[in-house]
Design a protein that fits this description.
This protein is α+β, with helices and mostly antiparallel strands. It has 13 helices and 23 strands. A 7-stranded mixed β-sheet has the order 3-9-10-16-13-12-11, sandwiched between helices. Strand 4 (80-85) and strand 5 form a beta hairpin. Helix 2 (32-51) packs across helix 9. Residues 148, 150, 180, 182, 191-192, 195, 197, 199, 264-267, 304, 306-308, 310-311 line the site of glycyl-adenosine-5'-phosphate (GAP).
Length: 436
């Protein structure tokens, strides 16, 4: 994990937020390549949800919803972690994670393990961030930053059903920021205070729920394999009955073998009719489907695949990170799948003179109209290759003396290190074929 964190900082993918003020716990900023990687992950998700199927529609609901949303969803009463305070070191700990946490005074021990530790009784602490609407804090002005994107989907179920002219089974998908007041150490971007979720609520006739649950369990696992993650480091883990959330009759996690061990990448839950029933009861609106063929009226059941953008990125980065040796020199390389690589091809003039930059820029202009490309003429060619290897660029094109004589360029492959001499006119086709 340390090597991945260091690489992310060195190459400006992901780094601690508010660093000039000493940082803020479990909060990170995404730099240029991090933004591109994130965008590629989200695009791949939308592609799988919308472009490759016709039974899911998109939504972008508000982050701040009516506060009664969270009463109905159960978050106000139950979205809590048990916390204990240590009166000796003044730190606060998750009561159910003491064995994994470090004592505030003696980090080699766990909280409560030394004679000096003085832990309070555990008390429940709600994870939702509160804020207020309007300039003064008064009764009724308290609102919450959403802790999941899912509830916005349930609130818009009726509207979507009407305008999208869908009938179950159909889904509503959304990507957006969620917020949780996590106090457990985050392990880089694994657990952060604000994070992007990719959630889809799939509404189905009740008797079809078990079949669709099985379908989405497998489909979501397969998606990570398609992004290039090693199948051996992925698994599906079914929750035991005592692990299930209050709304769920069955949940499975797609887990990845992170450096911190097997941990949740995505959850797939059978939420039954819990959410629509709750919101119908609290709002007074009927949230049901009337089937004109059977003349039946029913509350659809919901299968929910809920993924995190940050956790997907972390899995991709850990999986792709590699170190090898080229000509006796150590190389760090991100073997990212081309679909998610921030830059697909780098264009590098061998020299900063003799017409190399001019021809290289022409080639770059052409390539970037097709794929994400980067032009780099700064420094020794070996160093420029290393820089591209570290951000996971699958291909590099080098322009040299021969290019000006016979119109060929060198096409270098990040993984095999093969350097093929190819006519510049074939580059667009070669690059497109390699990265799509
Ligand atoms: N709507 C269901 C739901 O929110 P969840 O398991 O709490 O379920 C879904 O969250 C996904 O969101 C997780 O699998 C994880 O990828 C991501 N996630 C949850 N909390 C997170 C946090 N504090 N930081 C980063 N990602 C988080």
């Amino acid at each position: 994990m340390d090597a991945v964190v260091a690489l992310c900082k060195r190459r400006g993918l992901i780094f601690p937020a508010s660093e000039i003020y000493g940082g803020i716990a479990n909060t990170y900023d995404y730099g240029h390549y991090g933004v591109l990687l994130k965008k590629n992950v989200v695009d791949a998700w939308w592609k799988a949800m919308i472009q490759e199927r016709d039974d899911v529609v998109a939504l972008d609901s508000a982050i701040i919803q009516h506060p009664r949303t969270w009463e109905a969803s159960g978050h106000l009463a139950g979205f809590t972690d048990p916390l204990v305070d240590c009166k000796t070191c003044g730190q606060r700990f998750r009561a159910d994670h003491l064995q994994e946490l470090a004592c505030g005074r003696k980090p080699s021990k766990h909280p409560g393990e030394t004679d000096e530790c003085d832990l309070t009784e555990a008390r429940e602490f709600n994870l939702m961030f509160e804020t207020t609407i309007g300039p003064v804090q008064e009764a009724g002005s308290t609102v919450y930053l959403r802790p999941e994107t899912a509830q916005g989907i349930f609130l818009d179920f009726k509207t979507t059903l009407q305008y999208a002219r869908r009938k179950p089974p159909f889904g509503i998908a959304q990507v957006g920021k969620s917020f949780r007041n996590e106090i457990t150490p985050g392990n880089f971007i694994f657990r952060t205070l604000e994070f992007e979720q990719m959630e889809m609520e799939f509404f189905v006739p009740p008797d079809e729920a078990p079949r669709w649950y099985d379908y989405w369990r497998q489909a979501r696992l397969d998606w990570y394999v398609r992004l290039g993650i090693d199948r051996e480091r992925l698994r599906l883990r079914d929750h035991d009955a005592d692990e299930l959330s209050h709304y769920s009759s069955a949940t499975a996690d797609v887990e990845y073998l992170y450096p911190i061990g097997w941990s949740e990448l995505e959850g797939i839950a059978n939420r039954g009719d819990f959410d629509l029933t709750q919101h119908a009861n609290h709002s007074g609106e009927k949230l049901e489907y009337f089937d004109p063929n059977t003349k039946e009226r029913y509350i659809p059941h919901v299968i929910e695949p809920a993924a995190g953008v940050g956790r997907t990125m972390l899995a991709l980065l850990c999986d792709a990170y590699d170190e090898d040796e080229i000509g006796g020199e150590r190389r760090t390389v991100l073997r990212l799948h081309p679909t998610v690589a921030p830059v697909k091809v780098a264009v590098l003039p061998l020299l900063r003179k003799d017409g190399h930059p001019e021809r290289a820029r022409e080639i770059y202009e052409e390539l970037r109209s097709h794929v994400s490309a980067e032009y780099d003429e700064g420094g020794h060619i070996g160093k420029r290759y290393r820089r591209q290897d570290e951000i996971g660029t699958p291909l590099a094109v080098t322009i040299d003396h021969q290019t000006l004589e016979d119109g060929t360029v060198t096409l270098r492959d990040r993984d095999t290190l093969a350097q093929d001499r190819v006519p510049a006119g074939e580059l667009v086709a070669r690059v497109n074929a390699a990265v799509r």
